[in-house]
Amino acid sequence: MRPDVTSALADAPLHRAFVSVLSGSRPVGAAVLITPRLVLTCAHVVNSALGRDRFDTAPPTRDHPVAVRLPHVHRERRLTGRVLPEMWRPPRARPEAAHPNPPPVGTLPYYGDLAVLELDADAPVGAEPAPFLPQRDSSEVVALWASGHALPTLRAMPRVSAHPWTAFDVLGGTVADGFSGGPLWDRERQAVVGLVVAAHETAALPKPPPGPDGRRPPAAMYAIGLSSVEAELPGLPPLAVPAAGRGRQQLLELLEQLLTTRRGIRECEERLAAQLGRRSAGPAADVERLAGLAMGVRRGVPELLDIVYDHLAECRPGNFAESGDWTRTLRIARLISPGERLSLRRRRNLNALLTQCHPADPAILLRTVLPHAADLPKSVDLADATHVLEGYDSQPGQFIPPLLQGVIHISVQERTAGGYLADDLDAWVRSTAPRLGVTPAAADQFRADATLAHAGTAMARTAEPVPPRVQVELLPVAPHLFTYQIWVWSGEGRHEVVLTQDTEVSSRQVVEGIRRVLNTEVQEHPATAQVEFFVAPAWLRLDVDTWDFPGDADDAGFYPGITRRVVLRSSERSRETYAGWKRRSSALPTAPRLLLDGGCTDPAVTRARLEVSPDAGIVVVCCDRQHQGGILQQCIQAGVHTVLWHREDHGGQLATDLLALVEGIDHTHIPEAVRMERAKAVADPDCPTHHGRRLSLLHDGPDHRPPPLAPDPWALTQP
Questions:
Q1: What is the mean pLDDT of residues 501-515?
Q2: Which of 325, 336, 394, 565 has its Cβ near the most Cβ atoms within 10 Å?
Q3: pLDDT for the residue numbered 374
């Protein structure tokens, strides 16, 4: 381990909030102090401390205290904590909190796994609640072991953020059970960005081969991010944040101008303290205390704006929302907390409505409101989408901020679909708009325009359902043995792991698992389901489309390549290839198909061909078998997402046939065209040379959706 890892001990805010969870006198996990009397940890850590099964769902009673200590503040003092029943979220297999079924053993990720302990007494002198911030993709984090010693610690870098967890690559140190429930500390921003929840188990698997640089892929560690914590625990008191610097003096100056009496300052401070669950300074309240209270917690500044708005509306009759003072107030608030417009109460009220709205698609909503924004994150639901919109400012010439635009669009779609929540959403907009500097007339006009636009779009939209997908993350252990995990993805927003196999099995058992999932998990007509194998480039030439499961005497068996559309997808796209992938995807309707034949066996020639055709997203490979792997790898590195090739044959006629197969066909229809060619080959047993027998397809189209947290590095997330 690098020597600078131990310097994490210099991060005083982390150590003042770091908590060890004990079973007897032995640390079994960690936690983090969030208020003088509340501790946040994982539910499975509490279960372990109480000697229960780690996935036990029953909330511990007040008669089952949990022993904790703050090792960096008072190492010898033991405190007693008790689980708050309303904040007990045991691990569960499904995203719906109403289905608390424990996840199958070995399944990653799962949902929930959070608990809040209430201490019987205040934390020792010197302890302080930890500041929290959302995870940032480029920031390295550190974690401490539950013993509280300087070693072992570990360093990690975020790999991919996907609901409900964030995946990290461990750069230094070793993940152990004692890290569970502990805080991940962003040293650059001096804040907690998540709780350690699990590690990818690799002990039963052979070590992956070294990469081009001679190093093996790093171990994977998973964490529950701040957004998941707040979504799972809506009743959690507002968490602390690092002290803001930018805009503070401007806010103090403005508050002195707006709140001109000590009585007004005291009333606002008392109301703000009550809203945030903090102690009021009472007669000692002043502008400094008021601003510091707001800037010290998440969504504290929007909460302050709500209180000041109501206070001034009483003191200054008239339309204060349209005044220059309020416009300046909103501008300063955005400087201090750029990603927050709504108070905690307004955000929770909106989320409560959005959980019951169904017609609006989060991805389409983001693209409609932010048509020119690049690299928008994937949103798992409408609440997540509006959280993204909250962080954006209005474009020049726009009078409605993106947040309100999104809520109005949701309301319009809800009303069109006959939903009963449209009136409630409109009422929320009417209440919130003045506080964001938007006049009611502007909001009404935008709603009318959105209604007309949606009516035109609805007439042009087809009602064809999106076919489901069965996604297989395949990890070859030997030439004929595999471990795997299987996901189901559907157009209704479902994307979850349904089957896990951690011990080595044969290809026939893999196919049997796929067939079982198709029969039990896919609710639509099974013939529409597509099977996607996610494999590393070195294994792209696996004959997955020719595998079969013979069945019994009364069963016709299962042959994936002709019974379903079977495609291969790469599990090793990187950020370096994403730009090319995105460019080639956008040019699909007009770009010509590219042929890489026997003249491209030299890697330099292949690279040159791909560079002079920067928009070609569909490539036909027709060369000798021994050179196919290298060319496929170069296609992936260049961002190509659809590659058609024959595993055995090559030659002029085959190249002509394959080019004709993909010429003039939409990329979404290529998997079905390949399936038909495979079926034709099977239907004509007297023609052993039919190209459909050994035809294979790599298909990472614009609808690419990888497993949420695969063990291989997923730098390319969900476009």
A1: 89
A2: 565
A3: 65
- CB under 8 Å to 437, separation ≥6 — which residues? 321, 322, 326, 327, 330
pLDDT in tens, 124-137: 998 999 999 888 76
Furthest C-alpha separation in the chain: 96
**Dist CA 556 CA 546 (whole Å):** 15
What 3-state DSSP class applies to 670?
Answer: helix
The pLDDT value recorded for residue 719 is 26
Q: Which residues contact 262 (CB under 8 A, 6 or more apart)?
A: 286
Closest CA to 100 of 85, 84, 113: 113
Distance of CA 689 to the CA centre of its chain: 46
pLDDT, average across residues 239-257? 86
Q: How many CA atoms lie within 13 A of 6 on its CB side?
A: 7
Half-sphere exposure of 384 (CA within 13 A, CB side): 18
- Alpha-carbon Rg of the chain, whole angstroms? 28
Query: Which letter does DSSP use for residue 541 in this model?
Result: T
- Cα angle at 404 between 400 and 409, to 5 degrees? 105
| Long-range pairs for 672-679: beta carbons < 8 A, 24 or more residues apart | 672/565, 674/565, 674/567, 674/644, 675/561, 675/562, 675/564, 675/565, 675/566, 678/545, 678/561, 678/562, 679/562
Of residues 299, 298, 297, 323, the one with CA closest to residue 309: 323
The average pLDDT across 464-477 equals: 80
691, amino acid identity: H
Tell me phi and psi for residue 495, to 5 degrees.
-155, 95
- The DSSP bridge partners found for residue 474 are 484
Question: Which 3 state secondary structure label does DSSP give 198?
Answer: strand
* Mean pLDDT in residue range 280-287: 89
Give dist(CA 468, CA 524) in Å, integer: 7
pTM of the model: 0.62
Contact 106, 124 (CB under 8 A): no
- Taking phi over 0 as left and psi of -120 to 50 as alpha, with beta for the rest, 322 belongs to alpha
